[in-house]
Give the backbone structure.
Amino acid sequence: MQAFDVIVVGAGVAGLCTALAAAPRRVLLVCRGRPGSDGSSAWAQGGIAAAVGDGDDWKQHYDDTLRAGAGHNLRAAVERLTQSAPDTIGWLQQLGLAFDRDGERPALGREGGHLRHRILHSGGDATGACLMRTLAAALSRSSHVTVIDGCDLEGLLLCGSQVCGVSVRDAGGRSVEYGAAAVVLATGGIGGLYRYTTNPGCVDGAGLALAIAAGAATADLEFVQFHPTALAPNGSEGGQRLPLVTEALRGAGAVLVDGGGRRLMAGLHPMQDLAPRDVVSRAVWHAQADGIAVYLDARMLGNAFRRRFPTVHALCAAQGIDPLRQPIPIIPAQHFHMGGVRVDLESRSSLDGLFAVGEVACNGVHGANRLASNSLLEGAVFGRALGARLAAALPSPARGSTRGVRLRPAADDAARLRLRALLWRGLGLLRDAPGIRSVIDTIAADHALGECWQGQLATHLATSALARPESLGSHHRSDAPHLARA
Ligand code: SIN
């Protein structure tokens, strides 16, 4: 079995930052797609939040993060994130990332939940793509990382209770095992479990499911974020990735309206269209449940739309929508998972040798609802820090015989579609006890769903949702009152 110092699984922002910062350790990076295009990061339109503007400071960014997270956040993690943000921006610039400028200074946008303009962008609304190109280019200049793409994670190797390697199915369909002192999961979120999601199809929760199978502790699995503005599907397909219509548009002045042009958010929240994401998503959901179509009206941006939001402009054009002349039809879609593999501030899971960073991890930083543009930031801050720590010291080598823990078989296409529809209905933006129970019961009664790892992961999510009989942040129980802890 080939051995490395560190194995990183997943090549989104968190995985690449970990791998880069772990130099000179010998790192194996295994991923499904190619570095630079793997996972959700490359699709991120909104930017990276950092308190770098005049009059701003990390404490205000911290306060906004806590308020969006309904106070459920781990304060020490929020402190680390917001304090490290400006320095992380500098590190990304050194790697070659060019942020959009307003004359001599970085151009700063605003998004939901932020009381200040503090979002840095690159390429307008193509920040994720620009960031990932930069990190992939840095990777190609790094001799300490071996990349194997086209791989599916199949299993974890354990010596006693310590994780000491992975087993992957390579592009040729062969099962291959690799050993390492440290295994880092950076496999992203769970969008592929939902009917509508802004995540690409490869982001399906496999890393989380495997960590659970190996006995790793999890946290906050019930907190699933829905973005209020995905481009509405123009057919009635069963399950799919919907293009995002970035929140930065609302930061630039766009507003949510009904078919008659009436403002949706007026009177619903003091921050109106820039209220935290869970609040806006629920408003859209309620309106649509009442049969009211909802649009994002960005016509007031005029020609600046094309210049500042080229990605959304092209996505609209591909569906025959001219956002300079007509409001954009939108629906909410699953976007981010705040819960995941429980890790401490050093990204260590409850299993020795196993680490997790980025969306698959839960270090408590996002609380019950992530603040806009804190996700690329989280991947970069905690990934870079973990890589640097592993560069300085590796876990002690595991001793004893090795055993494998494997993922159960994957759902076939038909079962996956059933599951996506089931979670959309029972574990969506609004939940209640009977709906959540019906997710658990339906999976148990459906042999194909009950036996596959996706069905088991969905059961874990539903069980966590049932165990929190209160509404908090993104976890909105229509059968329980809303708490506000911020
Ligand atoms: C967006 O551009 O609206 C999404 C940004 C984010 O998820 O933080």
